[in-house]
Write a structure and sequence with these properties.
Blueprint (H helix, E strand, L loop, with lengths): L1 H18 L4 H8 L4 H9 L6 E6 L2 H17 L4 E6 L2 H7 L7 E4 L5 H11 L1 E7 L5 H9 L4 E6 L13 H6 L5 E4 L2 H7 L8 E3 L4 H10 L5 H7 L4 E7 L1 H13 L4 E6 L4 H10 L3 E3 H4 L4 H6 L2 E3 L6 H4 L5 E4 L12 H4 L5 E3 L7 H9 L2 E3 L3 H13 L1 H17 L3 H11 L6
Parallel strand pairs: 1-2, 1-4, 2-3, 4-5, 5-6, 6-7, 8-9, 8-12, 9-11, 10-11, 12-13, 13-14
Helix pairs in contact: 1-2, 3-6, 4-5, 4-10, 4-21, 6-7, 12-13, 19-20
Length: 419
């Protein structure tokens, strides 16, 4: 299967270039890599401090890596942090994040790019988040005796690692010094291929991240005023397919207030949300509106990135989008950390936390509009049922904390950042 991987890394940049005139993300991916290695060389040319390299595919993986980066910055103030992204959604949103000394796109995997990136940056430690398995980067780091950790790793039987023809992908596991896994199921899958001493079930660092977000969440007086004591349903990271399921309940229950945070905030998608929901206005317009206009608003459509995770504190019920698409649901634990009953669609099987939230009673999955409206009615009318789900959500998140501490402890015990 190595040939398929090599074909992928050759074709991906060509396809991105070809569709870039018609696709904004592809255009950002292509433009972000122009003269990239030269930019990296220039940025690091005068650096004399030891470097910790953290690589995240996109925005979600960055959130998983952030607690580690923040703790490493405290524990090793003399070290500097490089963060790389594969995807524009990560880079464009976090390129100025204060935890990082440098933020760059990851040059496409190749023997030359890996050699030059590591030569220019000279990392003491590399941390890859969740799914990142880049052959040339891993091999080059290994050849330079630079330890590589995989954190918040999660494995499923359907992945290429566990296919009869997956030998090439299984070989990549040997380049990691240690794998920190989200669940025991992943460890069981890896057991035939990896020594037990090189992996441990530490959990998901996202739980540490959302706990920190909740502890530092600011107040939004305008949202308190908007809800005005009425039930408030917050639908986060929604797609058009979610709107179609939510639409009827929103129209037929004027006593319920809504906050809709679409997954994409391009103008066309925002306009679609404004059409779907009753008396809807954009958040940017709502904050500037007169009091009388605010009082008439039934729905706020969030048109920025970054506040949804804090807005969940005001929800009566949290609906998590994506479950009615083939891609599956988005982040459930951002709402769970505030102790909210969580509802989502039927496509959630790739997300361990969603499965476990259902098992512990903090979440419910629905198949269609009818089931959605039934559970909304129950939760809005039966407070005891709602309180039970609230407690289950919060207890679940609290029980999952601590992955970051285990990873930092390993780094310290193995003296990975000591010269």
């Amino acid at each position: 299967m190595k040939w398929a991987y090599l074909l992928f890394i050759k074709l991906y940049p060509l396809i991105a270039w070809f569709i870039s005139p018609f696709n904004r993300k592809a255009a950002l991916w292509v433009s972000g890599r122009k003269n990239l290695l030269e930019k990296i060389r220039t940025a690091f040319s005068s650096n004399q401090d030891p470097v910790i390299w953290i690589h995240a595919a996109s925005l979600g993986e960055f959130e998983q890596g952030l607690p580690i980066a923040e703790q490493l910055k405290k524990e090793y103030p003399g070290h500097r942090i490089l963060i790389t992204f594969f995807s524009p959604s990560g880079y464009e949103n976090k390129k100025n994040h204060p935890v990082a000394d440098w933020v760059f796109y990851l040059p496409m995997d190749s023997a030359r790019n890996a050699k030059l990136l590591i030569e220019y940056t000279r990392p003491k430690l590399a941390i890859f988040i969740k799914y990142e398995f880049w052959y040339y980067y891993l091999k080059t780091l290994h050849n330079h005796n630079i330890p590589v950790l995989l954190v918040s790793g999660i494995f499923r039987p359907t992945q290429l690692f566990f296919k009869p023809f997956g030998g090439f992908y299984r070989s990549l596991l040997q380049y990691f010094r240690h794998l920190f896994l989200q669940d025991q199921g992943s460890a069981t899958l890896l057991k035939p291929y990896l020594a037990a001493v090189r992996m441990q079930v530490s959990g998901d660092t996202r739980f540490d991240r959302v706990i920190a977000i909740a502890a530092a969440a600011k107040s939004f007086p305008e949202i308190v005023q908007f809800a005005d004591g009425l039930p408030l349903i917050i639908a986060g990271s929604t797609w058009s397919e979610d709107d179609k399921v939510l639409h009827h309940f929103a129209i037929s229950h004027p006593e319920v207030k809504w906050i809709i945070a679409p997954h994409h905030i391009e103008e066309e998608r925002l306009s679609e949300c404004l059409r779907f929901y009753p008396s809807a206005v954009l958040y940017s317009a709502f904050t500037k509106a007169k009091k009388e206009e605010q009082q008439e608003t039934k729905t706020i459509v969030i048109d920025n990135i970054g506040i949804l995770s804090q807005l969940y504190q005001y929800a009566t019920i949290a609906f998590i989008g994506g479950g009615f698409t083939s891609q599956g649901i988005h982040n459930t634990i951002e709402a769970a950390v505030f102790g909210k009953p969580i509802i989502f669609g039927p496509v959630y099987d790739k997300y361990l936390e969603a499965i476990e939230l259902i098992e512990t009673g903090g979440a419910v999955s629905v198949e269609n509009t009818l089931q959605l409206e039934q559970i909304f009615h129950i939760l809005l009318q039966e407070k005891e049922k709602r309180y039970k789900m609230e407690n289950a959500s919060l207890d679940y998140v609290k029980a999952k904390a601590g992955a970051t501490a285990q990873i930092i402890s390993y780094i310290q015990e193995k003296r990975l950042l000591i010269n």
